[in-house]
């Protein structure tokens, strides 16, 4: 009777778990292998301590900032998440609308369900487009053209997926492979998720696998789609390909998915306007360090005119403050937005994002800071590193 309003990411996660078929929930929630890094991404944030500062006139706290030259209400963007249109009806459209209402960028994944053009029609604010390096380079050219026509100004190019990581939950629950037993298990899971089945499975049709739809014979066949996508990831990629990509794309280029300072320098040499320090939300290499632990060395390695973002484990407005203190221009959030949208649709996502902003603004006031540009190493309590 008391827990009526979801207020944290954990609350929305619980609601999403109840609503989604298990294989979709696990696909979102899970990480690679033993999920060591998955746990570390969030616990590393929790271990950081801030300084309480007082008597500083914090009557004009302002969380707004510029992300690639565009005004945002806070230093946050929605991370690209594949298949978001399966988690809520026309999910990418709902998320893009929520992002617009709150005033933060939305990123459309290469492997979204709603095509770029549908998102474009539903919104007026420019959104970001995320691309993987596909073997079919002509197709990359086509996608870039479509993104430009859809008004995308920022391309997030993801480089930490030469091949998909081993997300063992996806094998266990029949999401990937598993033959007939896997298919039957999926059907059984759908049968006990009637709310989702009606809203997304039936009313949300067609599930056209948006940006890649033309390339799959039966775009509603999840196995065929996965097989096509997996065959397209290109493990031969090197920085040369980023130089090539730079020539193809006129807008801002954000290189997503690096952890080491050397790699960040290479990205900048290849023409990146920004980088995302990221381990792909712990879905690729398990046992790699939590992304927040690598942020400071990356932000010190690249010049001040390169925008450094962080993702992985951001679960509150306070986490945004911590990331900015270590040199980030902004954060991306993945699972938080997906859970809020799966649980409560566009409105749920607006409420979660509003809460993040309120948490950030409150923390800034209590740290004695009025502007996000004042969030730097000085707000961290260096002497107090809590080890869980
Ligand atoms: C992702 N991520 C991702 N990244 C990307 O570049 N393209 C994609 O299509 C996807 N797809 C995807 C699906 C799901 C279900 C998740 C959870 C994540 C990674 C994403 O952009 C981001 O890096 C992480 O989600 C950040 O970590 P948190 O915020 O989820 O902890």
Outline the fold blueprint.
Layout: H1 9-19, H2 22-29, H3 36-47, E1 65-67, E2 70-72, E3 76-78, H4 91-102, E4 107-108, H5 116-122, E5 128-132, H6 137-149, E6 154-158, H7 168-172, H8 179-191, H9 194-202, H10 222-232, H11 239-248, E7 252-258, H12 261-269, E8 274-277, H13 292-301, E9 307-311, H14 317-325, E10 330-333, H15 335-367
Parallel strand pairs: 3-10, 4-5, 5-6, 6-7, 7-8, 8-9, 9-10
Antiparallel strand pairs: 1-2
Helix pairs in contact: 1-15, 4-15, 12-13, 14-15
The structure holds ligand FNR.
Ligand FNR is lined by residues 27-28, 41, 79-82, 109-111, 130, 158, 256, 278, 280-281, 283, 311-314, 332-335.
Task: Describe the fold and architecture.
Glyoxylate binds at residues 27, 132, 167, 280, 283. Its EC number is 1.1.1.27. It is an enzyme of class 1 (oxidoreductase). There is one protein chain. The chain has helices at residues 9-19, 22-29, 36-47, 91-102, 116-122, 137-149, 168-172, 179-191, 194-202, 222-232, 239-248, 261-269, 292-301, 317-325, 335-367; strands at residues 65-67, 70-72, 76-78, 107-108, 128-132, 154-158, 252-258, 274-277, 307-311, 330-333. It is of the alpha/beta class and 388 residues long. The strands form two sheets. An eight-stranded parallel beta sheet has the order 3-10-9-8-7-6-5-4. A two-stranded antiparallel sheet has the order 1-2. Strand 1 and strand 2 (70-72) form a beta hairpin. Helix 12 (261-269) packs across helix 13. The two termini are 32 Å apart. It binds ligand FNR. Ligand FNR is lined by residues 27-28, 41, 79-82, 109-111, 130, 158, 256, 278, 280-281, 283, 311-314, 332-335.
